[in-house]
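Lab notebook, page 48
Experiment: co-folding of the full assembly
Goal: obtain a model of how the components sit together before planning crosslinking
Operator: M.T.
Materials (sequences as entered):
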Amino acid sequence: MSENKENIIPVVDQIVGKQGTSVEAVIPILQAIQEEFHYLPDEALERVCAITDISPSRITGISTFYGQFRHQPAGKHSIKICTGTACHVKGAPQVYDAFRRELKLEGLKDTDSQGLFTIEKVACLGCCTIAPVIRIDSVTYGQVMPEKAGEILQDFLLSKATHQEDKQPIESIGPNGQGEIRIGLGSCCVASGSSEVKSALEKTLADAHIHVEVKQVGCVGICHQVPVLEVVKPGEPAAYYAKIKPEEVKNVVLNHFRPEGFFNRMKVDVIGLFEKILNDGSPLSVRRYQAEERDTPVAEFLDPQLNIATENRGVVRPTDLDEYKRSGGFEALSRCLKEFSQQQVIDMISASGLRGRGGAGFPTGKKWQLVKEQEASSKVVICNGDEGDPGAFMDRMILESYPFRVIEGMIIAGFATGADDGIFYIRAEYPLAVSRVNEALNKCREEGLLGDNIMGSGCTFHIRIFEGAGAFVCGEETALIASVEGNRGLPRIRPPYPARSGLNGKPTLVNNTETFAFISWIIRHGADAFARIGINGSRGTKVFALAGKVNRGGLIEVPMGMSIKRIVEEIGGGIAGGKSFKAVQIGGPSGGCIPASLADLTVDFEGLMEVGSMMGSGGMVVLDEDDCMVDIAYYFLSFTQSQSCGRCTFCRIGTRRMLELLEKIRSGKGVPEDLKNLEHLAASTKQGSLCGLGKTAPNPVISTLVYFREEYEAHLQGKCPAGKCIPLISYSVNDDCIGCTKCAQRCPSDAIEYKPFEKHFIDQEKCIKCDICRQVCPEDAILIT
Amino acid sequence: MQITIDHITIDAEEGMTVMQVAELAGIRIPSMCYLPGHTNHPSCMVCMVKDLDKGTMFPSCAMPAAEGMNLSTSSEEVKEARKEALELLLSDHVGDCEAPCRLSCPAFMNIPLMNRLIAEDRVEEALHVVREEIALPLVLGYICPAPCENACRRKKVDEAVSICLLKRYTAMDETIRKTGLEMPPQKSGKRVAVIGTGPAGLAAAFYTLRKGHACIIFDKQKEAGGALRYSVPDDLLPKEMLNADIEIIMALGGEFKLNYMVTSEIWEKEILPGFDAVILATGFRDENPLDGFGLPMLETGSVIHKKSFNSGIPGVFGCGSIISEQLLSVRSVAQGKKAALEADSFINGNTYLRRKPMFNSAFGQLNEAEKREYMQEASPVNRTDAEKGYLTGFTREEAIREAQRCMHCDCRKPVSCKLRIYSDEYGANRRRFAASERNQLTRNLQHEIVVYEPEKCIRCGLCVEITQKEGESLGLAFVGRGFDVRIGVPFSKSMQDGLIKTAQACVEGCPTGALANR
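Observation: model returned without errors.
Model output:
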């Protein structure tokens, strides 16, 4: 990092030298400048314009369009507060406020007076199962409580000061011998400390001279139990250790790779304890599940699932090409190149019934066919990994864990449609996904799986990565293409569809990450195998990010047509904390809230549409009695409203006006007329917007108005039944108070007087409703009314 | 390729947009963000049409016509969608189409324009502006209670602009008064009788004459002027001033028949058969009951309709206190003009005459910061007193100094602004989606010929495209995204630097008053 302004020109010149001077290079150039200076100094931008084809108008338009870019100097460290759905329902707004208080930020300031920290809200860090989540630089903290804000900042600064973490990745230690130890290194796992676990593991193995393979595998999916360690020994059932801590690694390893007697003793102990935990929930850090035992939470979580896009979950090393090949990888591609014609491949995809997994569910085979039919000297295949929905992290997990599978799917698509140019469009918020895909691409190039004359077939296909710059709307294919071309990410009217005229006018196939992940399986197992799974017009499986108020959240892949009830109760293990199931929000900001009364509904494209929701990209956030549906509608709409590109009048202004109406209702100032206006605006915004964002933005509002109208009406009467809407609630202390003073000590606004052994009181004038007192009270003596 | 629009089947060429095809068939579709030859559309959504087969709506300016399309451009549903788009745009728009002073003037005189012309010492043109609405500038320059000055935004800063005296000033010079007369291009050969010479009658005569009709003005009194002559004391309105205004009507060809009582017999035998139209400006019916004139009584208790100025007899109109008691001469003068226009329309075979005021986007009070924005264009001096006394009025210097105090509250594109035109056409209600708090108004005066008012911008981006197409080195850019997107100059530079060669093109391309000439 260089903050010296004199450096700007040489640094910019160097960046431009690397990225090129064309208009298309604008986003990568800006990303590189920001990487260097932590913001975009005007001098740097002017320099870019002076030495490239990029005009001042373009660079201004782009650098202010994408959320990633800053124009003001930032603090030394960046605090990102995740405001994804799962984090929101678990208290992210209070966490955000707590950090602002801790940093003494007032008004619009986002950087503390010492210039140490800059705070920002981000759409979703994709770690929904350990919500609420924050990330400081590259360190992710999960299950953050507002009262811990100060401790977290200290911890971060301390860890920075004490050890400069060495970031060398371990791939494997030692040759195959006694078995292998698999460690999950998905983002959730890393966030909850898997890299520390990994270090402890390396040390233990080295110290004890144990030769056992350590495999760094992708996301296991059991994200509610991270970090996860799996021990596989020949002749023994695999054992999972969940929520493992670094200091416990030694015992676990020695249990398995030491004399039998000791291991057995421990095994009995651990399993006995484990059953106890399940029943009374008392804390024990190590949780161990035997893979063969049924009736364990892990089995319940994994059994109803069917892994196609996530085939070999938790078994393969994400960037190990040989291993991918050993498990059938690139077999599909090889067969396509050698045995099938382009049309045969497309026919197979069509026959499988695969529909796009990005949300709208357009038949994949048909899309491929359209691109294939175009006569053009060059065609493009784009993998849409711009997963921006709050509450969704399927794409991230797939890219992090199965980069080769997606690459293979893309190459097959390239072959079938006659494309030569492939692009991975990946959110910049997913650095791990970017680096894994990059590594995987390099390996493919080395092995001749990418480039000219793939596998000696004469077929040419290149793939590059384009990092998105923080605009949810770029998930829309025409906006995505605009951003790759170096424009503001504005969707355009269709037709022409990208299949006819896409990137730089070339026929372009845009498919979702998950869609590509199905391709090789379909080719290997045949279209029928895929088509046999699922119901009606929805075939195969779908990956969901299950989060929110369930006992077991995580990444799940289930056959299309599974009922909501089964997903929530069997896989998710029901609602946490004995609360009652209220609704499930499917499809993120484009979807809708489905009430518990419709839980028998099957999850498929048409079924969801009928009840006013949609598949979306597959976020599934479970809500319980403590969640206010007006608040949820406000939450989603505030997201889409902030993500509108600003082009269509109805989306730009209509969503804003709807949000203002919701705000009015949420603060108890609404009148019955407001509900009518809200419904009206929702309908016209759907009708009058060009792209999917505007057309679906009103869905959360419409569906909550349909299924939870009484909650809206209660707000009109000044009541929030769930006790969530800040202006309508107040905190008080009940008679269970034992006078422990914890609340008084923690209250950030001195609203509670310190009175040992006496019942405490909350001064309503001073109370800022930060919820900390309720969280720290050991007696549940804080009431919300 | 054939497509059907509003049940008309039209041959279209490949590559045409729906809007272009509609144009071929003479179907006009409104649009704000579309400018032929430019690509940056659609955004405003005012050009929406409905696809009757698919049941969806889309912006016609960008949708390629496709074989077999069956579209509606004029159903109630389409109109409602367009109206809503306009209403949403209006909810985000801050600015007056017309200045508050003009809106509060019963005669709707274009006060800010008059002020600006006086400030530039263009008195003759200023008088022309005054006479567009006010037939008796001198009379009203003395006796008008000036409701405009009460509404003047400058009043909240220090004191109102002295509008009434400025108006009088435009007509004080006899040479200007007479040379500045706009004579009708040619005589119509039609005759109109005006009965009564009070403020309403004189105004009716003035505008009748300007329409090219012969006009005979009857009054039972010896001298013209009605209440102005016989009820207003000299120290309020010097008689020579009244005479001067009447002289103008005579100069236009008005023929006064004074000392002439129009009896019911004369009415029957001479007036009704002898004229193409009649305008009654006879004052209170208590004093001049018009018995035997055969005028049917309307539901309102009057013989003249107060909005259309018609009576129950075709071709007979009325204005002033005959309708109901008028306390303000300026209102009578305003009615005189309207009655004259109604008579003119009748004479020409009831040509369309707009009676409703044009759509107007009034936004209310200025806050302190906004007052400063407005004051950028106004002289900060205190309100000017006429040194030689009220009866004499302003000297040239005083008038110029005072006129420069005007803050230019009116929009610079009141006629060409498409937001106004379509809001008017579709009957948009600017308050329907109003936000609880309106945006803060700003005025960017950095450019020597362009004024940029961001709160009038609809973010269509035409200006951005124009600057880029013409190769401005800086040009304009979109700044931000979504609801907060604005148009600005890159790197926070001045508008003067941004618009070097495309300033005028941007002003012309801008569909609203956001970019306008100073």
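Interpretation: Confidence is low (pLDDT under 50) at residues 164-177, 259-287 of chain A.
Next step: discuss with group before ordering constructs.
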